[in-house]
Amino acid sequence: MPTGGLNMHISVGITRVSTPWVLLGVSRLWRAIVNRFQRGETGGGCTAPAPDPKGRENGGLLTILDGYIVREVLGPFCLCIGGFTIVLLSGYLFELMDLIFIKKVPAATVLKLLVYKLPSIIVLTLPLAVLFATFLVLGRLAKDNELTVMRMAGFSLFRIAAPLLIIGVVVSGITYWANEKVVPEMNHREANLVRRIVFEDAPPSIEEQVFFRDPEGRFFYIGRVDSQRRQLHNVMVYDVKHGPYPRLITAAAGEYGESKWNLRDGIVQELDENGVVENQVRFQHMELPLTGKPERFFGQQKTTSEMSRRELGEHIHLFQQSGLQVDDFVVDYHLKLALPFASLIFVLVGAPLCFTFGRGGRMFGVVVSLVIMFLYYVVTSVARSMGANGLIPPLLAAWLGNLLFAGLGIGLLVRNP
């Protein structure tokens, strides 16, 4: 159909709408569509075919609409990432101020700390940027009546939101990859650098609820440390150098000295090549010699935020073999997969809310975004605490926030076909 016919088709559709404010949004969206088809004209007086409202023609309205929404989203998305990153990085720098002035930390070291912290901050801002960009863009389209024009062209609200859902999936994938490959190592470097600064003039203390290795390659975990009495509680040692197969030592308590640990009330388990317990011996007292001072192992200490999902899973497997309850670590293990999906969840919830209340303006979108973000992370934090304390299964604790908000978003989309 010639472009004149396309304009006539649009005009007829407009006259069927009794509200004159639709004209405000028609011109902007459909001018872009008409220009696209005009550029697609071929020689010899032939013109491009009329767009198929359902997007069945290759290169038709389907592609134009997707590209239009994606281009509209990218600007606010990048702007939000930059803004949130600056705010959070400034907050981190503010937290370091006392340490910087007391320890007289050089500017180069401060810059290194900021670089190490940057990946974890960017990963945190990605779902927030997706949420805010969704509300800003769809809110603007609704206010300018462009969403109404898209509905007149035969598109469902789910179809309009499809490009945003794809963006949510892509950002979720990037977040998971970064959390596995980049963030743990950068967090570990940042934590080690802070430890070196803090303990520059004094020997570092053993930290509780972290994993570390000694020079012989043994893995250690200490549930609780009493530094004043030099006492240890809930100790686990995984020795891969003992004999042909690993040995797992767990103890309820103990004391640490300069060159050895005195463990009490524990179990020694010999594992076979498949990780199955082959032999088990209980002990009331056991001396564990160390090749170096335990305080000097701090460079190898790791929290769950400094480990990838695979690495944390390996440590959890050791705990489960020893019979220890580690629900808090299991929850963190599942959260490393669940939290990256926040970007997709925010689109699922944000898009239908914009379709319903989009005319509230940008301030309305910002307020609703903050409310959604607050509720999501509150639910996730409460569920994590419940899972860590054994009130609900760890898997459910990690995914509860996603399930609730995904159900809400899908329900809103179904109610607004």
Task: Walk me through this protein's architecture.
By secondary structure, this protein is α+β, with helices and mostly antiparallel strands. It folds into three domains: 3-50, no CATH class; 62-185 and 335-415, no CATH class; 208-300, no CATH class. The chain contains twelve helices and six strands. The protein has helices spanning 3-15, 22-39, 61-103, 107-143, 146-152, 157-181, 183-198, 309-322, 327-338, 342-357, 362-388, 394-415; strands at 211-213, 219-226, 231-239, 247-256, 260-271, 277-289. A six-stranded antiparallel β-sheet has the order 1-2-3-4-5-6, with helices on one face. The two termini are 30 Å apart.
> How can the largest sheet be summarized?
6 strands, antiparallel
State the low-pLDDT regions, or none.
1-61
What is the string of helix and strand elements? HHHHHHHEEEEEEHHHHH
**Approximate strand percentage:** 5-15%
> What helical percentage do the residues reach?
55-70%
Distance between the termini: 30 Å
Number of helices: 12
The gyration radius over C-alpha positions equals 29 Å
Question: Which strand order does the major sheet show?
Answer: 1-2-3-4-5-6
Summing up helix and strand content along with how strands pair, one would put the structural category as alpha+beta
List the domain count as a whole number. 3
What is the β-strand count?
6
Output mean pLDDT: 77
Characterize the overall form.
elongated
Summarize the structure.
Helix content is 60%, strand content 13%.
